[in-house]
Amino acid sequence: MNLPRRFLCVITDERACPVELATMALDGGARMVQLRRKTASGRELYEWAVRIQELCRQREAMFIVNDRLDIALAMHADGVHLGQQDLPAKIARALLGPEAIIGVSVSTPAEAENAGRDGANYIGVGHIFPTFSKDKPSPPLGMASINPIGKAAGLPVIAIGGIETGNIREVMKAGASGIAVISAVCGADHPAAAARELVNKIWQ
Amino acid sequence: MMVVSSGGEHLLHNGLALLQADAMALSGPVIYQLREKGLEAGALYALCRQIAPIIKSSGSLFMVNERFDIALASGAQGVHLPESSCPVDSIRKAAPGLITGQSVHGPASALTSEKAGIDYLLFGPVFSTPSKEPFGPPQGLEALREVCRSVSIPVFAVGGITPDRACACIENGAYGVAALGSFLDAGTLPETVNRFRSFIPS
């Protein structure tokens, strides 16, 4: 599966039912949904994943599971997103096959290079700006990191971390292919409207 | 006999699993279930790859808890599923070569698991356990008997299992017993396995 040229990825969080969040994100024009729930049981994840995958298929959007390759394999997700503490991308590639989308979170050129070698399709680069969505002891990477890290991987960059309508244009100009958000959509009063506004900015 | 890894309650759980794997060369074959919920997938995979060949060369069976992807990637023989795992048939389809076991907490879920094609069950806790965390309140030998009667696949009893209690579990229909706390000292693992065996009628 090819990645779209410019797109919004919405990552679900603990605030609401992931299926509802996914529906609203897709309504707002997100082209990728990532299911990320660290404390849910395998059964819960599987059931959410099956429903979100169906929603994504209907709208020709991509669905990926964070970390849990087992869930992705069991319900035939479009792909997985892996952090540096998760399984190596080459293992995911071997088990999911050549068609699956595999994303890897990186924050240095060396990690990016590994992701490229391991058969990833894109890299998630962040956090770009200060963020409260995750406990991040490290300082933000800044927009200037996007281009060199993307080049080291030879892959499209999805920028993440503190991205909002006010800074999207600069982030896209700095070389990002996509934007991933958690709070900007999941924490909004109207997630679909928030997603739509982000998508509009991505294309401006 | 099933040995369950320490589950991260032990400070050196990574090292402990390695020592346990080494000790299996002396204990004779057991089923080893690696259950380390505290480990991130990357570290769990690295540990599995390290211990899988050691465990297999001892003739033991290596089961990874829940993550059948990691079982597949590391060369483990099977996956042990919690009761709230993703559907068994989806796992059997995605990983047809793996042995699948599942934890159950009553006859109804035992029957469901058997019908779904699970190879063995783990039922408990039969007795009260010092580490209540994994398995909930004790269910007793009566409940064990009921579960064993309701299915024809092997049932392992777990929860507060000591060598002298193993016999009662077998008499109540269990195929084998599983323990965690008895194996926290890897140095005595072979002798503890033998003590268990001496209490299990053959």
Intertermini distance of chain B: 12 Å
Strand content of chain B: 15-25%
Q: What is the CATH class designation of chain A?
A: Alpha Beta
CATH-defined topology of chain B = TIM Barrel
Query: What assembly state would you assign to the polypeptide chains in this entry?
Result: heterodimer
The profile of the biggest β sheet of chain A is: 8 strands, parallel, barrel
- Coarse morphology of chain A: globular
Main beta sheet of chain B: 8 strands, parallel, barrel
Number of domain modules of chain A: 1
Please provide a written account of the structure.
The complex is a heterodimer of chains A (204) and B (202). Chain A is of the alpha/beta class. Chain A has a single domain (7-203), classed as Alpha-Beta Barrel (TIM Barrel). Chain A has helices at 18-27, 42-58, 69-75, 89-96, 109-117, 146-153, 168-173, 183-186, 191-203; strands spanning 7-11, 32-35, 62-66, 79-82, 101-106, 122-125, 157-160, 178-181. Chain A has an eight-stranded parallel barrel, surrounded by seven helices. Chain A is globular and about 40 Å long. Chain B is of the alpha/beta class and 202 residues long. Chain B has a single domain, classed as TIM Barrel, CATH 3.20.20. Chain B has helices spanning 13-27, 41-57, 68-74, 88-94, 107-115, 140-150, 163-171, 189-199; strands at 2-4, 31-34, 61-65, 78-81, 99-104, 120-123, 155-157, 176-179. The model of chain B has no long low-confidence stretch (mean pLDDT 89). The A-B interface holds A 41-46, 67, 69-71, 73-75, 84-88, 91, 94-95 and B 40-43, 45, 66-70, 72-73, 81-82, 84-87, 90-91, 94-95.
